[in-house]
Amino acid sequence: MDGLAIFQTPGMFGNIIEMMLKIIFIFTMNMGFFAPVLTYVERKQSAFMQDRIGANRADVFGFTFFGLLHIVTDAVKLIVKEDFIPRGADKVLHTVAPLIAVIPALIAFSVIPFGGKYNLWGHEANLVIADLDIGILFIFAVASIGTYGAIIAGWASNNNWSLLGGIRVGAQMLSYEVAMGLTIVGIFMVYGSLKMTDIGAAQEDFFHWGIFLQPLGFFLFFTCALAENKRVPFDVPEAESELVAGYFTEYSGLKFAMFWMAEFLEIVTISAVLTALFFGGWHIPFVSHAMLSGFLSGIVGPDFAELITMFVHVGVFWLKVAILIFLQMVIRWTLPRFRYDQVMMLGWKIILPLSLANIAVTGLILLLVG
Amino acid sequence: MSVENDARMDLHAKEMILNMGPSHPATHGTVRFLLKLDGEKIVHMETEIGYLHRGFEKHCENGTWTQAFPYTDRLNYNSAMQNNVAYALAVEKLMGVSDKLPERAQYIRVMVCELARLADHYTNLGAAALELGALTAFIYLVESRELVWDLIESVCGARLTSNYIRIGGLSADLPEGFKEHVKEVFDKTKVLCDEFDRLLTHNRIFVDRMRDVAPISKEDAIAFGFTGPCLRAAGVEYDVRKANPYLVYDKLDFDVPVGTTGDNFDIYLVRLEEINQSIRIVEQVLEKMPEGPINIDDPAVRQPSKEDVSSKMESMIFHFKNQIEGIKVPKGEAYFATEGSNGEVGFYVVSDGSGKPFKCRVRPPCIPLTQAMGFRVQGAFLADIIPTFDMINLIGGECDR
Amino acid sequence: MMAGNYKKVNRDLTMSFWDRLYIPEIIRGLWITSAHFFPNLFSTMFAYVTGDPTKRKIMTIYYPEELPNIPDAYRGRPVLVQGKDGREKCVACGLCEVACPPKCISIVGELREDGTRHPKSYILDGSRCIFCGLCEEACPVEAIVMSHEYQNLSEYHRGLMIYDKEELLVPEEKLERRLKFIRGRAFGKCNY
Fold it and tell me: What is the model's pLDDT at position C13?
């Protein structure tokens, strides 16, 4: 038990250790686990949906591990490809654009709580990297910066096709950011706070989950989030058959990988935000924190019960995230894509009024119910 | 000057010239579009074809009448059998032996034509779904196409380059158990096509992309020379199988779907319904097909069996003469039109009395359709070219020969 | 115009109220693809665990570990038939040379000591062959047939694709299936 005494040292040291562990955990989960595995899941899931096998040939001494080694081979392939800048393109902007796209996708995860508050040997662990008061507005702000990456990439490539992609990206993402902000207002009104940890904690009761209190808000936010991420059905900027590859036509190698990573990381971020806001975060339905902790402390003692509860909650959170990722993948492979003007029409003429109506109706109900 | 004009003059707006070149994911069949865009609206579009020209007519002139069959396969390579049948019918018309064709050969020719039509429509609708982003729907139809190709492979030996029809009949008979195989295949393809239908036809995203995009009126369609599903989608009731029936189409019971406005959605619905009708025709053919010979009873035309060639003198002589000099077709010219999956596939053959064709020209059904592209997408968005071009079903091999 | 059997397609009724809301149709679409995904996934896992490939519901096969079923009529690589006495059946008549559309066969014939003809050299350019089967149709003695081989046909050098007589000879026993086809179903049906 002596090793665990670090948690009992004066507050600051324990806090630093906790912070580093959380950062390492999130970084590993996102960059190290989810993003590569998503490349594999995309190939295999689409294959099974389409009655075919998928990628299964990369092997080590004859063992294929169901194609999991393709993650490694894809990464190696992208890293060793020739990195070129087209003639006439702006060198600095061309190189900087992928960075601007990928860094916000990584940062955005820092305000999402993947567990509650746990009392581990006297130290209060709060499983979120930065428990900001403004909560989700930080995610929106950071995601807006990501827009710049795509627009700059479209402009800097000296290519008419990329320019078209860049223009489409700019218009689409701006429109949907406006709508996205408004769709969330309903959630803030219902839970009464902008802090993500508060919203997460308030969903301990199964029937207080966001999906039951704000069903329309869920659909609207999900649509807006898909549009922000430039996934089908909103992948007009990178429409493969129309614009060859849209704003990243002239990218190859690691820069292309960064755009791609940004997209996958945003899938995870969106799923995590949706889980935290609408699907109860880390809570198991009908089993509250106290119930689980009490049940387990009968077996292993109160401190370890908290630890195990923490792991269970974190596992439940990531399970919900995985289900939502699966849902996004299914949507990507099933639906056709919009036309550019239909995307604009959807964002401004349908989603924006509906979200305003959502706010009005929510306010009315809150007033009546009290 | 109004406020609007002042604002416009300040904006430095120039039309963008974009080259949707021969190698572009959407221009399957290597066609080049030169676009003048104002923002995303198309101001002017020029079409350029010919990137797949391989000299079909010249090749045909160098070989005998029978040696042209592999070349006709490669014209409309999605529905290869239809080109074979059209060419054979044209030559038989020129020879004057069209009415001597045995019943069984005629029924089998109709059946393989309809199987080829199925394969072509599956490919086209699947590619349309693919270009619009519905990737799974594409794979379902490609799976159906694979099953139909398995059927064709069991009949003639290759999935695409069939080389199955011969002048005077066929080269081989159907395999045993073909009827059961067809039933098995149709059970699966009906399910897959039904799923495709349920995925897309009522899906508002898809319908908004296709409906009211690039319509064409009846008069314009006839003026351009449209035939086939695009003409029928514009509302003109013309199908070569009903207007000038050939083979045994007048004995079969099938409907022909007709649209109203000629836009992409109508063409899509027409093609989807034609799939059902083709399946209906094939099932009828399998019921009604008699037993019997598969070639004309004329040794100057048909291929003798291997047994005859090695034992009978006359068969060997005719065999050698037909192989070395070619089947003798009397002098003259003939044109025969059949209903291909894209439109009217016609062959115009000219013979100088010898065993080699003097001229063999094919009427490609997709050239008038490609011609009308610039007219149809005027004023539409860049993204509208994609479904319009897809539903034309331009096959490079046929358009450029 | 011919009357009857021209039927109008239904385009306006395809957009009902429920379709105009995007969501119900989208959910139905997702249900269809998920209904493909889960049976495929579980049947493939089940087939892997039990080692029985026929239980798989997916359409693709694990080539080259599993080979597809080739029908009788399949036109693979053209080969020369080697009779029971070890000699080729070919009599160098030249019909296949004339019948070949891309003219990929070259034959030089000669007389053997016992009076029979045979090809001194028989060259088939595999890079020009279009696998059409007209040579098999033309041959009067069933000496060249389209075998059922489709694997290992590509080479790294063009010169290796020009096959001579030794590379083309295949014993008759291996080609039974194809010979049965051309005697029975193909050209044999022309018997009047």
Answer: 56
Interface of C with B in 109-168 (CB under 8 A): 130-134, 137-138, 140-142, 146
| Interface chains of chain B (3 or more CB pairs under 8 Å) | A, C
Residues of chain A contacting C34 with CB distance shorter than 8 Å? 49, 330
Alpha carbon distances (Å) from C13 to B194, B201, C9, C18, C185: 18, 11, 10, 12, 50
DSSP designation for B305: P
Q: Which residues have CB under 8 Å from A350's CB, separation 6+?
A: none
Share of chain A above pLDDT 70, in %: 94
What sign does the CA torsion over C45, C48, C51, C56 have?
A: positive
Q: How confident is the model at residue A2 (pLDDT cuts 50, 70, 90)?
A: very low
What pLDDT is stored for residue C4 in this prediction? 46
- Helix-strand-coil split of chain C, %, nearest 5: 40, 15, 45
Residue of chain B whose alpha carbon sits nearest to that of A337: B133
Q: A342 touching B, CB under 8 A?
A: yes
pLDDT at B107: 92
Interface predicted TM-score of the whole assembly (ipTM), two decimals:
0.86
Closest-CA residue in chain C for A331? C30
Rounded Cα distance, B107 and A31, in Å: 62
C131-C135-C137 Cα angle (round to 5): 110
pLDDT along chain B (401 residues), means of 10: 52 75 78 84 87 89 90 89 91 88 90 92 90 86 91 89 87 88 92 88 84 86 90 87 87 86 87 90 90 83 79 86 88 91 91 89 90 87 85 87 84
Alpha helices in chain A (DSSP H): 11-27, 35-49, 70-80, 91-107, 136-156, 160-191, 196-201, 210-213, 215-228, 254-278, 289-300, 302-334, 340-345, 352-369
Cα C169 to the chain's mean position, in Å? 20
Burial B7-19 (b: 16+ CB within 10 A, else e): eeeeeeeeebebe
Contact state of A51 with C44 under an 8 Å Cβ cutoff: no
Mean pLDDT across chain C, nearest whole number?
82
Q: What is the pLDDT of residue C11?
A: 62
Q: What's the pLDDT at B350? A: 93
From residue B69, alpha-carbon distances to B346, B360, C80, C178 in Å are: 15, 12, 24, 22
Quick check: B254 and B288 in contact, CB under 8 A?
no
Chain B residues whose CB is inside 8 A of the A49 CB are: 136
Q: Distance of CA C104 to CAs A286, C124, C163, Å?
A: 77, 6, 10
Using CA atoms, how far apart are residues A311 and A228, in angstroms rounded to an integer? 31
- C-beta atoms of B18 and A161 within 8 A: yes
Which of B143, B243, B303 has the CB atom closest to C2's CB atom? B243
Distance CA(B366)–CA(B368), nearest Å, equals 6
| Rounded-to-integer distance, Cα A323 and Cα A275, Å | 10
Give kind and range of the element (H or E) at residue C163.
Answer: strand C162-163
| Tokens at B156, concatenated | 């003639």
Res A85 pLDDT > 50: yes
DSSP string for residues in A314-363 = HHHHHHHHHHHHHHHHHHHHHPPPPPHHHHHHIIIIIIHHHHHHHHHHHH
d(CA B325, CA B64): 7
As a whole number of angstroms, the distance between CA B262 and CA B233 comes to 5
Examine the pLDDT at C22 and tell me if it is beyond 60: yes
Query: Among partner residues B203, B239, B273, which is closest to C29 by beta-carbon distance?
Result: B203
Phi-psi region of B245 (alpha: psi -120 to 50; beta: other; left: phi over 0): beta
- Of the candidate ranges A132-146, A262-276, B259-273, C50-64, the one whose mean pLDDT is the lowest: C50-64
Tokens of B238: 């013309």
Structure tokens at C121: 């050299």
Residue of B130, B136, B386 lying closest to A334 (CB–CB): B136
Nearest C-alpha neighbor of A186 from the set A218, A208, A228: A218
